[in-house]
Specification:
With 64 residues, this protein is mainly α. It has 5 helices and no strands. The chain has one domain: 434 Repressor (Amino-terminal Domain) (Orthogonal Bundle). The protein is globular. The N and C termini lie close together (5 Å).
Length: 64
């Protein structure tokens, strides 16, 4: 997720603001310490302009 965010020229602050979450939450998602809820996954994919299944594959792995 981090690589996709950076490729879109977004900071963690930017992404957090667009999603209505804290920077700490974005950081936890990016480090794998916590997984976003399904409804948030859809919003993240929309903001990052990437298919949700690409960003969050069904096998539970994350795009870096």
């Amino acid at each position: 997720m981090r690589a996709t965010r950076v490729a879109r020229d977004l900071t963690m602050d930017d992404l957090a603001a667009k999603l209505g979450v804290t920077v700490a939450t974005v950081s936890r998602w990016e480090t794998g310490a916590m997984a976003p809820r399904d409804e948030k996954k859809v919003r993240i994919a929309t903001v990052l302009d990437i298919d949700v299944r690409t960003l969050f594959p069904l096998d539970g792995s994350l795009v870096p």
